[in-house]
Structure prediction request, 371 residues.
Amino acid sequence: MWMEKTQKIALSAPNIGQAEMEVVQEVLAEGYLGPNSRFTRAFERDLEDYFGEGSNVLALNSGTSALHLALRVLGIHKGDIVLVQSFSFCAPAFAVTYTGAKPVFIDSEKESWNMCPEALEEALDYYNEMDLIDKVKAIIVVHAYGTMANMEAIMRLSDEYMIPIIEDAAEAIGATYKGQKAGNWGDLGIISFNANKTLSTGGGGALINSNKNLHQRAGYFANQAKGTFPYYQHDEIGYNYAMGSIAAAMGSTQLRTIDSLLAARQERFERYVKQLQKHESIIGQGELAEYSSSRWLSAFQSFEQSINYQTLSELNPNLEIRPVFKPIHLQGVFKKAAYFGGDTAESIFKRGFVLPSGKGSEGIEKLNLVV
Prediction:
């Protein structure tokens, strides 16, 4: 007998409305769906206005493409070392491998769940003592779930060792530290507009930096490294990374509502905190002083064994509930990689879970925790 399945509230459903549908129709009516259109240029200008004076933005087809281009324009290649936050989705580490460089993983701090400055310093000191510091060519810090890493402490180490920072703000559009937006602190920053992100174009990303030369170089590689000739001339290896017109048009439209999109997710997190405050064993992902998280996902840890993502899923069958990221240094593909730090990231993975924060989550009246 056929039975209708319960429709779950998705973890991070995008806010797509009439305005997005109309602008897609406009792109289709014009007939050009490719990159480098008036829509992509407009989206890049809109993002530059959003991120502030001096920001150069390149719209791309994914956040992973942006990570790869950031590494490429920094000249990173085989034999180099890149220090990567372990508590993250795998994209930063994968991007490093595309260049032939070696990712070395760094543990998290307990407060923000992001890169631990002490573990980072341990790694930098080690490579310095081993006379290998010249091989360390970049630091990739991630703002997991929209909560910013301790950028002040990490940037001090970056300055001391003169190693550039790639700021993976894929999940953190709208997060700030001292009023300055995530993605705008490192030497290069990246944003994602994937289907489940706060600002969604169905797929896409952006590379942000203040260096005009790096910006132009990244644009060159993103468009198949085509030379300025009337015919196709290629003197270097390029990539098909540029963003198409439909995604760009949707991005500009969504960016006009970014404040309300962020407020809804931040409010959702605070409502969970209020609901869970009587359960002292459950705590939310923290944020440091003067930092403001975008709360892309509402992330929590449970220090009570009977409450975890599996039991919560069973108790709340109408909600999509998932575990947090498994640290990259624990993934089979990177089991031989070097790692600095303790077991903080692993502990967060064992205890952590994420709750719905996107469209539809406003309908969650109460989270069932009766075990």
Summary: The chain has two domains: 18-255, 258-363. The longest strand covers residues 136-142.
